[in-house]
Amino acid sequence: MDPREEELRRILSDVERRETRARKLAWLYVAVPLLVGILWISIAYLRVSKLKREEADLAQQITIAKAQLQALINPQGQSESFDTNRKQVILNSTDGRRRKALEEAFRLQEQSPPIPFKFGGKSPNEGLDTSGYVAHVLSQAGVITNPETYYSGRLLEQFAKDGDRGKDEIPGIQAGDLIFYDPTTPVFYLDKKYCLGMVPKGIYVMDRSTLEGLKLNTLARVPY
Question: What is the Cα–Cα distance from 176 to 181, expressed in whole angstroms?
C-alpha cells in the first residue's frame, strides 16, 4: 500500500474517532442538564403535593376542632332521637354495596371499646380521623382501594361533582352518600336530619341541626 494512502486512512480514522467522541460529549452536555431539570421539577412537584396535603390536613384539623365543640352538645356520641328503628329504616332503603357500606359504618360506630379518634389515623385498630373513617368504610364496601392514600381533599375531588358543589340539597341523594363541611371534612349522609361521622369524641350519629356552626361545603353522591 502506498505510504501516503496509509497515512490518509490513519488520519481519517482518527477524525472519525474524534467526531464520535464529540457527539457523545455533545449528547452529555444536553442530556445531563435535562435530567437535572427533570429531577428538580419532580422534587418541586412532590414538595407542592406534600404542602397541599398538609394544608388540607390543617384545614381539616381546624374543622374538627369546631366539630368537637359541637360534639359537646351530646356527650353520648349519638343523637337522642336516633333509635334502632330509624337505623333499620335507613338500612332497608339501601342494598348492595351501599348497604354494605352503611352496615360497616354503623358496626364501627357501635364497636366496643369505641374506636379512638386519631389525627391522620387510617386503621380502626389504631384509630381513625374523619377522612380515615369514611375511606375505610368505602374500601370495605369495595368502592375504593388503598384507603390509606385517601385524605379529605382527595375524597372531595373524587366524589363531588363541580356542578353540585356548594349545594345543600342535590337530586338523588341517598343514605351512604357524603356531606362535606368546610373546608373538606366528610361525613356520611343518612337522611335530611342525620349524618354519621368521626369527630374527636368518637363516631357519632349527629343531628345535622347541631352542626349549624359548621359551614356546609357540598353534598356528594357516591357511585356504589
Answer: 16
